[in-house]
Amino acid sequence: MRILVVDDEPIVLTCCQRILEDQGHTVHLVGSADEAITVMEDEPFEILLVDIKMPIRDGIDLVREIKEKWPQTSVVVMTGYATPGTIRKSRSVKADRFISKPFTPDELLEILQTIISKGGRR
Amino acid sequence: MKTAVLDEGRKWTDRAFVVNDWYLTAYEPIEDIRGKRVGILYVGVLEEKYGDIRRNAFTIFIALTILGMGLSVGLGLFLASRIMRPVYQLIEASKQVSAGNLNPAIDLRQAPKSEIGIFEKTFQEMLESVRERYRRQKVESENQLLQSEKQASIGRLAAGVAHEINNPLTGVLTFTHLLLRRKDLPEDVRKDLETIAQATDRVRKIIKGLLDFSRQTALHPEPLNLHNLVRSTFALVENQALVKGILLKFEPGENIPPVKADSSQIQSVLLNILLNALDATDPGGSVTLTSRRQSSPEKAGQQGVDLAVSDTGCGIPPENITKLFDPFFSTKEVGQGTGLGLSVSYGIVEHHGGTIRVRSEVGKGSTITIWLPIEGRKG
Predict the structure, then answer these.
(1) What's the CATH superfamily of A2-117?
(2) Which residues in B have their CB inside 8 Å of a CB on A?
């Protein structure tokens, strides 16, 4: 799978890269929403991992644009904490799944697995 | 007259016009030795003199009557002022009190032994106890408010800190777990890594607790049978009580309606309070949970249910009661408790529109009472 990870925290990017590459996925890392759009325009990714809280442009805004332009891309929203507000907002922009930080490798892979297995129906 | 006096021998009195004036006259027969009527004795008095006396007497009578009336009105007014004025004052005071003024501006001072005085004294005592209750309620609601404000500001801080900590923590968790997956690890390194994993997991739980405390967790309220919840929670702590030799009792109240609440959150509150009670109680003691219908301790008319957990434990010193719900306040040994349990419980109950009250006596035990509204949170 080609997976794009968007987070302004380098440590989270590194974590995702290690976890996902270990499983044989192709991983690309970007630090902002604008970079993500640029990369997607170049060649769309199948799965997007997006942090909600980012400076300049937040994850919700990015997910909205991604889902409008590339509706076939699955989106996992990463949140420091899933408040009713962030969950509602993420749903409204059609994010597919959530994961709360901090997560263990197994937790992230489990979420991805549900997306990949659902992928055939999309 | 002549017939009456001379012939019949009766006495006769009448008024008569003699010469040119009215007289009051009296006639009586005169008898000789043998009892034969021989003449009439006549006495006459000028009527006008008698009229004078009668007029005088009438005038005096009227004057006395007026004087008497005056005196009784005066006496009446005097008595009214002695009795009725204080009564009116009490009525006025009652009106002021019921309008919310607990310090009515009236003079309530009477002879202490008179009935009115006793009445006033009782009224004053009643007023004093109302004032006392009002003062207590005011202090309680101020504390509640202070606690809510403290809760809110600490909540904001906690949420901010937790967000920041979660990112580096993701790094620690990820790499610890990735390292643990390696098969070529020496046993001692694996053990060290497992310790790191456990410690990190504890940090994660603390942060989760902090965020729960900041009341950002979504509620899923539904009609909840509290007695079933209490029984299932008891099942979780029964063994612990048994091992420690503490009697765990449930005294269910009657007619307890279902309350609208999130069962898993309320269960965590109950569990936390029960575990604290078990911790505070020595072997041989008891922990009792009672339930009863109770209207809101704060909002009049709002119906709810009290769940009270009483223990026969060591009690809470007064200086600690106000800190009881502060995050990280704990009297347990380091590692035994995070000091988040009660503050999270407070947040959850408040989120449900309920309250938590504490009553404690050092050496005798504590009672923690959760009140939950039947209708759930309003507004």
Answers:
(1) Response regulator (3.40.50.2300)
(2) 159, 162-163, 166-175, 177-178, 181, 200, 204, 211, 216-218
